[in-house]
Specification:
Chain lengths: 384, 635
């Protein structure tokens, strides 16, 4: 893999090198998607910056500099800090389980006074960091050994279990899927996944018994939404009506009839895609999905150009995390998946998701900037 | 390095597989969106049109009004009405014409509907007619498929079981007008009524309650498909008024014998308005259902002013009922003493002008006590001259004249207590001493409402700054009287002066020489004191005086004197005060006196200020099913 600037790999990066390495085209993409989000929130409030759009803009502005800072910090620091970050995120998740307050009928938030933090969102990035670090230290032969799987499986299963208990089905699914993807990328044999799938099938009855009533009814509803049009099936049916009536070109900005009739209590968060698809039609929806696709592809390209395994796994993990956000959210809004509560990244109203997604992009750019840095097991650089 | 290259290759392969997998999933999203938004678009378009969610307001039932013994004075009854929703009918004029062929709809109704349609949100139903009969309802129901946007709704109509008996105090409710709109969405509803006068207006926010909402799914034709969510509003709170409705009914019947009269009955100690009559009255239901222009014309042009509350807004020269104020001012300022003797030759001269006593031959020499008893005008002309207008005005104000008392229902007038400063400011001319003299007998510019005259008596008998009130914040009347009655501040006038004035007023009724001896209450336990007054509406010319052309029957009704009387009872420990004004009734003691006598006798018999009365004739007439025998305070 030829580096774009071969000499860089042989000396420490200067601050100017790093600044030049910031991917402004990626930032432009993120900003474009966020702006679509501001417009959608503006429309969700019936043509008003209050109460959502303006605050979302402020959050974007606040997260912007930290994102750049994350990109500039030496990747080896992140490598060394990976487990610490994971540990802190895990502690926060536990704290929420212990004494988070009940919001939206589910314990997902921790009140830090100034902001309300949703630790499960932080966990999504922390898990990628921890797994990338773990597998960076292993050769491909080592990664294949079953004994080497114990730690990463624990890293995945523990937060999944905690998040499921909150209960936050969407985040649990995302953590599980992203963890599996990283194991797969790290070289874990395919039959292991087959065995895992069998084990999961065997454990399904147990898991079913652990689900809350509303989670079960959502799964039922997913299978037949028209069975309960006023109860659990209401959201998804109304969402499909809004989307479908939008047609090819949509009804026009602020002119959506369905989304403005307040049929969805959470139209500004998980169901925001319906507003965009109703008002801008299939063209608008596909344009947004195309932007997301470019971002994900960008992440793949950055990851594959990295000369260290940590960077590659981190980049692919973050790109996949982003993909999972978009896919699960969109699929549930259009009735392909059960309603599990995953926000549309950069667009849904919500502070923690906005900030963690942007910090994730900071890490992705970090991978890009530090693509020629070699990282040993302990995080020292290996020049040449 | 070799190791890293190897795992990099593996990662590359697997990343490719991952990318392909994600691309496939993404394609599934695109396919699904295409299916929803292009293939099935028309189906969802129809669903979207049929799928409108409306928020409908639930009208809270208006709070009821009870008297102190839990007699229902105002409640609600069912009413069926036909409404039309503007946004659901394409041609409003045609729809209304079609409707008019089924039921009686006047041109005025059509005009009003078309006006309201412009004024209100298009989704707000506009009332076409209310009070539908069963026959009218069935005719509309059958034709409803040809009447887009028309529906029949059930509502509540304000009901006053006693009709006109307490209409001025209770007030009435009527349709909301433009200037009533405050942003409360309830006010935009077609059937909504708000209080327009009396207690209904004063306590409107309390009686009104707050709107509930019903979130309903309606189809493209506005038919409710189902209710999605419902939030019950807050029903209006009930209001308890200080009235004893039996007394109100009694007083109303007594006043109805006169052409136009008003009466105020107070509990002097608590300030409770036990009865307040303005006769003739009107039927408050007329406003609830909407007044016809003809009926409105009839009511508003009647010379007896049935729409005006004469008890609180009728302003009359108080005549001789004002003399206690002059007496108080004279004693307190030291202008005269109880022993001061003034001779009455039948007239008094001041400069070129002569002021006559009502008794042509005069009263001869007399003291204050006897002057009150006999209502000698010359004594009070001279006393006023000695006291001065400013002392008189200041004393009268302390007893409630010259400004609104602050009654808790709207529309109260303040009367007028003239002073030299007031005259200079309003007319630019200086005060004449003659004006002081005629003010001293309650004539000239001085004006007072019956409520003020009654309040004066209440303040005299208690020595406190009693303020009358209609609404009882403490609720129903408990057995044995209020445990914690409101205590008014002391007026700060000398009790010996008050005692002398009250003794004079006692003599007016109970001394054979008093002007109202004929109107005394025979039972000594219920005996009353009082003061009559006859206020001139038109000047008596010297020619008429000389030739005695003053028989009441010769004078047109509107030029006759007003008859006033204010009384208190029992005379030993006064508890109740009553003022009556009979418009153009003639002599105060002979016309107004019997009314006060009967009302004060009845109120002492019932004694509503202290105990639960026996079931009276009024309670039995209460058709509304509320308890005829008043229940106790927990009620």
């Amino acid at each position: 893999m030829a580096s774009l600037s071969p000499n860089l790999g042989h000396r420490e990066l200067t601050f100017a090198d790093k600044l030049r390495g910031i991917r402004w085209d990626l930032i432009a993409l993120i900003t474009a998607i966020s702006c679509a989000g501001f417009a959608a929130l503006y429309s969700a409030a019936n043509g008003s910056l209050q109460p959502w759009s303006e605050r979302q803009m402020i959050r974007f502005a606040f997260a912007f500099l930290p994102m750049i800072a994350v990109a500039l910090i030496d990747i080896r620091h992140w490598y060394r800090l990976s487990y610490w970050i994971y540990g802190i995120a895990l502690a926060l998740v536990v704290a929420v389980d212990l004494r988070g307050f009940v919001g939206m009928g589910a314990q997902r938030w921790i009140d830090l006074g100034v902001i309300q933090l949703q630790p499960s969102e932080v966990m999504k990035v922390a898990l990628v960091l921890a797994l990338a670090r773990h597998f960076n230290a292993l050769g491909s032969e080592e990664a294949v050994r079953l004994r080497a799987l114990v730690l990463p499986l624990l890293l995945i299963v523990v937060p999944v279990g905690l998040v499921l208990k909150q209960p936050d089905l969407g985040t649990a699914v995302m953590l599980l899927a992203n963890g599996a993807v990283l194991l797969f990328l790290a070289g874990v044999r395919v039959w292991v996944f087959g065995a895992g799938a069998l084990a999961a099938a065997a454990a399904a009855p147990v898991a079913w018994s652990m689900l809350r009533g509303y989670q079960r009814s959502r799964l039922y509803t997913f299978i037949d939404p028209s069975a309960d049009p006023l109860g659990a099936g209401y959201h998804i049916l109304q969402s499909k009506i809004a989307l479908g009536s939008g047609g090819l070109f949509g009804k026009g900005f602020l002119l959506g009839t369905q989304t403005h009739l307040s049929f969805l209590p959470e139209k500004q968060t998980d169901f925001i895609f319906t507003i965009i698809a109703e008002e801008f039609g299939l063209i608008g929806g596909l344009t947004l999905l195309a932007l997301y696709t470019i971002v994900v592809a960008y992440g793949f390209a950055i990851a594959l150009r990295s000369r260290n395994q940590f960077g590659r796994l981190l980049g692919l993990g973050l790109a996949t995390n982003f993909f999972l956000y978009v896919f699960i959210n969109t699929a549930m809004v259009i009735g392909l998946l059960p309603v599990v509560g995953v926000p549309l990244p950069l667009i849904s109203y919500g502070g923690t998701a906005m900030v963690t997604v942007m910090l994730g992009f900071g890490l992705l750019m970090n991978v890009s900037i530090h693509r020629d840095v070699r990282i040993s097991r302990l995080g020292e650089s290996q020049l040449g | 390095m070799a190791r890293d290259t190897q795992r990099h290759k593996l990662l590359g392969r697997r990343a490719l597989i991952l990318g392909v997998g994600q691309a496939l999933l993404g394609t599934a999203l695109v396919g699904r969106l295409y299916q929803l938004q292009v293939v099935e678009q028309s189906r969802y378009r129809v669903l979207a049109d049929e799928n409108r969610i409306n928020i409908r307001l639930l009208v809270p039932p208006r709070g009821r009004i009870f008297d102190r013994f839990n007699t229902t004075l105002a409640d609600n009854r069912q009413n069926y009405r036909v409404v039309v929703v503007p946004e659901q009918t394409s041609d409003m004029q045609a729809t209304l014409t079609a409707l008019a062929s089924l039921i009686a709809v006047s041109d005025a109704d059509i005009h009003r509907v078309l006006r309201d349609v412009k004024r209100l949100h298009p989704f707000i139903p506009v009332e076409v007619r209310s009070n539908l009969s069963w026959e009218e309802m069935s005719r509309i129901e059958v034709a409803i498929p040809e009447l887009p946007g028309v529906s029949i709704e059930q509502g509540l109509l304000r009901n006053y079981p006693f009709g006109p008996t307490a209409a001025h105090v209770l007030g009435y409710v009527a349709a909301v007008t433009e200037k009533d709109l405050t942003g409360d969405p309830l006010l935009e509803l077609p059937d909504f009524r708000i209080g327009k006068s009396g207690v209904e207006k004063a306590e409107d926010l309390k009686l009104r309650g707050t709107a509930g909402t019903s979130q309903v799914e309606v189809n493209a034709y506005g038919r409710v498909v189902r209710e999605l969510a419902r939030y019950e509003g807050q029903p209006g709170q009930d209001v308890i008024v200080a009235f004893d409705m039996a007394m109100q009914d009694f007083a109303m019947k007594r006043c109805a014998g006169e052409t136009a009269a008003s009466c105020v009955l107070l509990d002097a100690v608590t300030g409770d308005v036990l009865a307040m009559v303005s006769s003739p009255s009107f039927d408050p239901m007329l406003f609830t259902t909407g007044l016809t222009p003809a009926k409105w014309h009839e009511l508003s042009t009647d010379p007896r002013n049935p729409l005006t509350d004469k008890a609180t807004a009728g302003q009359y020269p108080p005549g001789s009922t004002f003399k206690p104020m002059v007496a108080m001012a004279a004693l307190e300022s030291g202008a005269i003493t109880p022993e001061t003797v003034i001779n009455c030759p039948g007239y008094i001269k001041l400069g070129d002008a002569t002021f006559h006593c009502w008794r042509a031959g005069g009263h001869g020499p007399l003291r204050l006590h006897d002057a009150i008893e006999k209502s000698c005008d010359v004594f009070f002309y001279e006393t006023s001259r000695r006291t001065g207008i400013d002392h008189i005005a200041a004393m009268a104000r302390r007893f409630g004249f010259g400004a609104p008392l602050g009654l808790d229902i709207p529309g109260e007038k303040g009367g007028l207590m003239p002073t030299p400063a007031w005259k200079l400011a309003t007319t630019g001319t200086p005060w004449q001493q003659g004006e002081t003299l005629i003010t001293g007998i309650g004539q000239g510019s001085v004006l007072a409402t019956p409520l003020q005259v009654a309040t004066m008596a209440a303040r005299l008998v208690t020595g406190r700054a009693v303020v009358p009130h209609v609404v009882r914040p403490s609720g129903l009347m408990p057995v044995g009287g209020d445990p914690h009655p409101r205590v008014f501040r002391q007026l700060g006038v000398s009790s010996s002066a008050v005692a002398l004035v009250l003794s004079g007023m006692n003599a007016v009724v109970n001394d054979p020489g008093g002007t109202a001896y004929a109107e005394r209450i025979a039972d000594p336990a219920f005996a009353m004191g009082g003061k009559s007054g006859t206020s001139q509406v038109r000047r008596i010319t010297p020619y008429e005086r000389e030739h005695g052309l003053l028989k009441e029957d010769d004078v047109p009704w509107k030029d006759r004197d007003h008859a006033l009387f204010v009384g208190f009872a029992p005379v030993t420990a006064p508890r109740y005060v009553c003022a009556v004004v009979v418009e153009h009734g003639g002599g105060g003691s002979s016309v107004a006196g019997p009314l006060v006598r009967d009302i004060l006798y009845e109120v002492q018999r019932r004694d509503p200020g202290r105990r639960i009365p026996q079931p009276g004739p009024v309670a039995e007439q209460n058709k509304n099913g509320s308890p005829a025998t008043p229940v106790n305070g927990s009620g």
